[in-house]
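Project standup — Tuesday

K.O.: blocked on the structure for the chain from last sprint. Re-posting the sequence here as requested.
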Amino acid sequence: MTKVELKIAWRYLWGKKSHNAINIVSGVSAAAVMVVTAAMVCVLSVMNGFGVVIEGMFSHLDPDLRIEHRQEASFQTEGAVWDSIRTMDGVAVFSETVIGTALVEYKDQQIPAQLKGVDSLYEQLTEIDSIIVDGHYEVFDGKFYSTVMGIGLSNQLSVGAHFIHGLHLYAPKRRGEVDMLRPEDSFNRQTCFMAGIFAVNQIKYDDKMMLVDIRMARQMFDYDEHEVTAVEIGVDGEVGKVKKAIEKVLGEEYKVMDRYEQQADFFRILKIEKWLTALLMVFILLIASFNIIGSLTMLIIDKRADIRVLRDLGADRRLIRRIFLIEGWLISSLGAILGLVLGVALCVIQEQYGILQLGNGTQYVLSAYPVHVEIMDLIWVTMMVLGLGAVAAWYPAHKIEIENE
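H.V.: unblocked you, prediction finished:
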């Protein structure tokens, strides 16, 4: 692209045409690209916003790092290797957990639940206090075992914080054989009392999980004193750096997962939804790009005299074709720039003032649509708009060569 081609294309873009309809069509083309570009920015930013919100919900209970064995359901945390991890730079909290499924019984209600046994450091590891909606966090009061369960599970059991009646827990014994004459002896049994109820607004936690003391969980599932199903790490510093250091110490036998990897399935689905939505917007952009084809076709017809003059002055077909290719690219670029500015402005307004509400603002977790603008999304949208604009400009520009042969 030379300065001559760019200057001529720029002149055609802003200069007066012999037919006013050409100016109108060119303006409509740029406006269509602008609107779709702004819509793409807003849609992608809203999807990002939901991701950020849900990530924050998970972070209340998910640790910075979780260590699990790749093959075994449980493992021991004794030895020099684990001692080195406890004292490793960047490891602020080293918390042991035991997770298993048990039957919870309260009066006439019986529901399977996921028991998560936690130690005394769990409160430092997570933000559990911030999501308690009734009662308080406590798993052992010095005499009796207590539990803090999800709000959905508590509703199913019809139990509230500080109820005086205990919850009875049952889990099948891992060792020994089933006694058919006394099958009840094949279960480990424990009793605990309600201390609090938490709400994460996620079904996998609210409807299924209850936090208990790790000693009780080990008794329920027949685990030894230092046996765990996972180790949860609180990081003081860069998570990625600490993750790599722990992986180097433990080797391939264990998997070390950050918060995204702990919720890999959920974030994968969220990303798929985001890009499927973006693909739909690309189809809309493709339709809008047909306006550029119409605009350039009308401009080429209007500038036939100019094309003949350029040919007489020595311009070849390639130069003339590039002029109109640049013209189409300028129309899409104008729409892209205005669309990006408009889209980002709308996102900022929504973030600050929450103009678009969710329902009446009370029955949902959020009162307004969340937004989060990411630079990579803006770059992707710009490349897509300019790319489709160039493709749309190719056809009418190519027809010039055919008509002049």
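K.O.: great, moving the ticket to review. The chain is about 50% helix and 20% strand. Residues 176 and 186 are 8 Å apart (CA to CA).
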